[in-house]
Specification:
Length: about 130
């Protein structure tokens, strides 16, 4: 079983690395540094969710990003594909980004309250930017 949760700082390296690895497949003729800046900006503006193992939240299977209710990227690791994870990620990230700023969340904390911190994408960008 999988769990979909809001991205955390500790997920930054995985999200950034997979986004940058996949981006050249879709964008041709763009300088790698310019592409990296664009990906960072998109991640900063996005609501991001990750799919992880239900028993180990640090075992990531994929992630998705959306801005204003529009999913712009879904990634699922090769070994986890063809199990409906991508569809579930797209559904959850779209639900969570329906507010104008794209900062909402569909996930509940153990205390039963919605997580409305909205800092997931900013935390990812800050953590990734610090590594550069």
């Amino acid at each position: 079983m999988i769990r979909v949760r809001q991205a955390r700082k500790s997920d930054a390296a995985y999200v950034a690395a997979t986004a940058l690895k996949q981006a050249p497949r879709f964008v041709r003729g763009v300088d790698r540094e310019e592409l990296a800046l664009t990906v960072r900006a998109m991640l900063n503006a996005s609501h991001i969710v990750v799919a992880c193992s239900e028993t180990d939240e640090d075992t990531l299977l994929g992630w998705s990003a959306a801005i204003g209710g529009v999913s712009w990227f879904v990634f699922v690791s090769k070994d986890a594909r063809r199990n409906g994870i991508g569809a579930r990620l797209r559904l959850e990230v779209t639900r969570g980004s329906m507010d104008q700023a794209g900062l909402g969340s569909t996930h509940r904390r153990p205390n039963g309250r919605d997580d409305q911190s909205g800092s997931g994408a900013r935390d990812l960008l800050a953590a990734w930017g610090a590594r550069q």
